[in-house]
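ok so for the tutorial part 2 we go from a plain amino acid sequence to predicted structure tokens. step 1 is just haveing the sequence, like this:
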Amino acid sequence: MIKLQNLNEFLTKYMRLDECDPKDDGFVNGLQIEGKEDIQRIAFAVDACVDTILRAKEANCDALIVHHGVGYGGIKSITGFEKPRIKAALIHDVSLFCYHLSLDKHPEIGNNIQLCKILGIKHAVPFTDVGYAGELEFHESLESFSQKVKQKLDTNLTVLPFGPKDIKRVAIISGKPGASRISEAAEQGYDVILVGEAGHDTYHVAKESNLNVIAGGHYATETVGVQALANVIKQEFNIEVGFIDSPTGL
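step 2 — the prediction. this is what the tokens look like for a chain of 250 residues:
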């Protein structure tokens, strides 16, 4: 068992919240909803939706740590879809922690550095404000690399094959980056960029920049960070943890 305050203090430091720029992040990072003081089991999930909150409670978890929290852009009113989410957490006394961009860009357990490790990308360095990029050990065909992404993440892909057929330099940004980041990948000489979602504006930018784009799914590309964080918490506090998988297929 650990105290809520101790968990919060550890996460604030470990997740480097002092480095987060609130102007660039839609969610308030850190402890969003305060629950019970004593924590015996912690759930991890991508999204703080009613489904994951209720499943956390059913699993006898006292806290839920997620990538997408509640109150995107800051809570101004508790109405619409926000109400049942916040109500569920308050009724069941479940503490809710959110780590948004701080989890994307974390250099050890972040979504993007974890994707580099999973996909065998070497010499990874920061790319833009949240991503990571590096090189494959050997040149691979775009088709072969795409299949590896599909298998490792157990996901469906959208591939825009506008770059070289054989690739080596890879950039990664989980979630939904804007077209400007697609352009940056091309300008910096990458052969392919792996993203979560490829928006409509991505298509022509990628085509005109001669860049391959692989969209592996917003959800699938953001499951790896929270699971890596779960292992850190388990080892640090010797506490039981669990991942709640609630895929959207998007």
